[in-house]
Target: tRNA-specific 2-thiouridylase MnmA
Amino acid sequence: MLAAMSGGVDSAVAAARIAEAGHDVTGVHLALSANPQSYRTGARGCCTIEDSRDARRAADVIGIPFYIWDMAERFHRDVVEDFVSEYAAGRTPNPCLRCNEKIKFEAVLDRAVALGFDAVATGHHARLVDGVLSRSADPDKDQSYVLGVLTREQLARAIFPLGDSTKAEVRREAAERGLTVADKPDSHDVCFIADGDTRGFLADRLGSPEGPIVDALTGAVVGTHRGAYGFTVGQRKGLHIDRPAEDGRPRYVLSVEPVSNTVTVGPRAALEVTTITATRPVWNGPLPAPHEPLACHVQLRAHGEVYGCHAELSGGDLHITLATPATGVAAGQAAVLYVGETVIGSATISGAS
Model:
């Protein structure tokens, strides 16, 4: 069995648990940058030089073989370039979700199977029950949302040893096992943006074309920006609007139009949507694809609110009708459907109204 070891506490304990259970385990760390210094370092990073060293030390403590796999080219193409192109198209991507889909459970799993491994174990906080993805026992750390894009075939070869544990329990166990990452902080932000400046990262690649910020209610130009890609639906801060709204209330980003390089803003009430259309549906749960409205729940962002809804597949797209309005729904994000704690499918949001 292959254990994907990021260098953090979760993947270290996951590897230790499956080794202790008697599996023949090999640890693998993914080198995701041809120039690791360009990625985040320290506690705020992910997949950095420090992480590879931490992963190797953990493997030594556990007593399993350890290798580093170079996935830099694939990661750059499928995650970094996808991130840039999605923003350029006016959408808001989730790079961690794309990394799970394209790297950890496509490229890595394909290579693992080709080498004779029967499954890949990771430190994700989620549960698999008879091959069906469900929420973690720790609601604050649940990662079923970012795994909701995986197919049934990928889930059949995945193992999540931490699904029944809280993060506090994982850290205590790591300390008891003598793993030096027991108190290592969780990674944050986008791992391939060294200084955390997403707008600057995109500006280096997409330029800084000036464009208008338009008030949706009056049609008036109320400000300018240096790249529509620097805004996302629901954003309130950092708009640099020249004049306040007539009612004195804050404005929010309502839409981003990349062709005209226009950002449209308006009142919070204008953000409310009750219908969502999503493309590239993945039906990975225990139920058949819903060709008639199915009562379920939907999560629209990582660690976001869960909404009651009816979902239906039609014309190759997923159509979702919310029981209560949602705000800040951005194209490019995933809509992950649940029945109770169980994931039943997902799709990529393309529009909302």
Notes: The two ends are 46 Å apart (CA to CA). Helices lie at 9-20, 49-62, 72-88, 95-114, 144-147, 152-156, 167-176, 198-206. Residues 40-45 have pLDDT under 50 and may be disordered. The chain has three domains: 2-176, 208-270, 272-352.
